[in-house]
């Protein structure tokens, strides 16, 4: 058999080989067209998202806005004067982290952390059970690290679910996402629920000084990492979920009732809900609709469900099953594992697109999924499906990011980014940079900075800044120029 390089794949990445089979290949390309987005479609999306964000910022339109634009009450970035030990709790998925951060003179920084699991039955059980489990793990961490219980350690709480904040230490859960569905938490103050759980754990002496989401934590972490950067204006999460925050002028954040003497506040967009009003219907595929209908929160977080790591692998699996059922893949043969919902992890997408040659990783993944002896044409087509799904994800994020950059109209912006999809996918960064440049005003320059433990480290830094601001020290506003 003659094996030749496939020109389309080579043009995309130039790193791997493909197999020409015009009849099959063209058919696969036709079937995947719905997963490809033009700049015209993205521009339409950007206009709708810009409208949604502006509606979310205004008092009169916020109640009906799909994109809520919650104010975070975080108005200051780290400035280098923070000192002491700070705890952080980072809850946003099936695992959560507890961190201990120490800040000292001459940029001294030390961090220790531990990962704890949230069992499946707790993720969908009673809210009190969730927070009791968190308090139990906090107590274990405090004991393990011999932290002084006489002095209440400041604790920053990253809660990476849609949160309507009414203060730096008060926030109400709007809705669960990412597979969580604990009872008795929606519309409740999650800070109070955690404080109550801590009280039930005798001997655990902590002082909750801030609640925030992971995007805000990422922004704060990158601002600290760049030695108190004054142009870190965006925090972006592309992992299990997808969300962004950005620095907004006080006069535009009409719902903000905090310190009006400072010019800016960080706004948590919660853009994962964009499209829940039908604005994305024109570009949603049958795979997107199936994922949404089978989820724990049908009709909600539709933008996030087209992007994030919780869903990307499942979109690929649904496409593979669909095409195999049409006998366009694997001669119509499917394993039970490939037919199983959630069996094709998003990490498989990264593995397959990491192939340099000979489809070694693709063959390994397909074998793990119970597909034995696939043809090289099948491997090429599976990779093409992965490329289409991940490229669409990157381009959707780029469109949202371009909306924020164009709205702020700052000429130089650092964007802090965290999340497993961005961190581990071999081409996500490149795809995002290229598309964001195309969609952003030509005079705006930006850099994407990978955050290190952004959501957890950021929570501790918000706590540190809150404690710093309790002291009679002069501090700078969040977007001091």
UniProtKB/TrEMBL annotation:
Enzyme Commission designation: 2.7.1.-
Domain Hexokinase N-terminal: 28-223
One Gene Ontology cellular component: mitochondrion
Catalytic activity: D-fructose + ATP = D-fructose 6-phosphate + ADP + H(+); D-glucose + ATP = D-glucose 6-phosphate + ADP + H(+); a D-hexose + ATP = a D-hexose 6-phosphate + ADP + H(+)
Gene Ontology terms: biological process: glucose metabolic process; glycolytic process; intracellular glucose homeostasis
Pfam families documented for this protein: Hexokinase_1, Hexokinase_2
Pathway entry: Carbohydrate metabolism; hexose metabolism; Carbohydrate degradation; glycolysis; D-glyceraldehyde 3-phosphate and glycerone phosphate from D-glucose: step 1/4
Keyword Ribonucleoprotein: no
Hexokinase C-terminal domain span: 234-465
Keyword Transcription regulation among record annotations: no
Signal peptide: 1-21
Coiled-coil stretches noted in the UniProt entry, renumbered to this chain: none
Enzyme class: transferase
Gene3D superfamilies: 3.30.420.40, 3.40.367.20
GO MF, one annotated term: D-glucose binding
Swiss-Prot/TrEMBL keywords: ATP-binding, Glycolysis, Kinase, Nucleotide-binding, Signal, Transferase
InterPro entries in the record: ATPase_NBD (IPR043129), Hexokinase (IPR001312), Hexokinase_BS (IPR019807), Hexokinase_C (IPR022673), Hexokinase_N (IPR022672)
Similarity comment text for this entry: Belongs to the hexokinase family.
Name of the protein in question: Phosphotransferase
Organism of provenance: Sipha flava (yellow sugarcane aphid)
Organism lineage: Eukaryota, Metazoa, Ecdysozoa, Arthropoda, Hexapoda
Gene (UniProt): LOC112687164
């Amino acid at each position: 058999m003659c094996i030749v390089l496939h020109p389309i794949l080579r043009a995309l990445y130039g790193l791997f080989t493909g197999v020409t089979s015009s009849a099959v290949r063209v058919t696969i390309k036709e079937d995947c067209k719905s997963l490809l987005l033009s700049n015209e479609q993205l521009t339409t999306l950007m206009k709708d998202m810009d409208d949604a964000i502006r509606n979310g910022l205004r008092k009169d339109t916020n109640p009906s806005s799909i994109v809520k634009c919650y104010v975070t009450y975080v108005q200051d970035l780290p400035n280098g004067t923070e000192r002491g030990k700070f705890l952080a709790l980072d809850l946003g998925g099936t695992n959560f982290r507890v961190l201990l951060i120490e800040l000292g003179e001459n940029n001294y920084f030390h961090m220790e952390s531990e990962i704890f699991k949230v069992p499946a039955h707790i993720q969908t059980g009673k809210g009190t059970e969730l927070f009791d489990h968190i308090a139990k793990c906090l107590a274990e961490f405090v004991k393990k690290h011999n932290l002084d219980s006489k002095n209440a350690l400041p604790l920053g709480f990253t809660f990476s679910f849609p949160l309507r904040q009414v203060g730096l230490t008060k926030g109400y859960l709007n809705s669960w996402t990412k597979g969580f569905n604990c009872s008795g938490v929606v519309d409740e103050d999650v800070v109070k629920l955690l404080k109550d759980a801590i009280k039930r754990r005798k001997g655990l002496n902590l002082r909750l000084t801030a609640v925030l989401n992971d995007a805000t934590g990422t922004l704060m972490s990158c601002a600290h990492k760049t030695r108190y950067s004054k142009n870190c204006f965006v925090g972006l999460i592309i992992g299990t979920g997808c969300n962004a925050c950005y620095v907004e002028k006080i006069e535009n954040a009409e719902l903000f009732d905090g310190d009006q003497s400072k010019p800016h506040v960080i706004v948590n967009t919660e853009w994962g809900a964009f499209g829940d009003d039908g604005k994305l219907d024109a570009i949603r595929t049958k795979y997107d609709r199936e994922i949404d209908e089978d989820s724990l929160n049908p009709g909600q977080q539709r933008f996030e469900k087209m992007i994030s790591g919780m869903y990307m692998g499942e979109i690929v699996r649904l496409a593979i099953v669909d095409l195999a059922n049409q006998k366009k893949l694997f001669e119509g043969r499917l394993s039970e594992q490939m037919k199983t919902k959630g069996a094709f992890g998003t990490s498989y997408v990264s593995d397959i697109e990491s192939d340099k040659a000979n489809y070694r990783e693709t063959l390994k993944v397909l074998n793990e999924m119970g597909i034995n002896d696939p043809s090289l044409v099948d491997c090429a087509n599976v990779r093409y499906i992965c490329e289409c799904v991940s490229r669409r994800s990157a381009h959707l994020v780029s469109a949202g990011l371009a909306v924020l950059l164009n709205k702020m109209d700052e000429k130089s912006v650092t964007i802090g980014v965290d999340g497993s999809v961005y961190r581990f996918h071999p081409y996500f960064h490149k795809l995002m940079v290229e598309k964001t440049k195309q969609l952003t005003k030509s005079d705006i320059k930006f850099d994407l900075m990978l955050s290190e433990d952004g959501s957890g480290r950021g929570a501790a830094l918000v706590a540190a800044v809150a404690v710093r601001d309790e002291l009679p020290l002069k501090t700078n506003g969040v977007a001091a120029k």
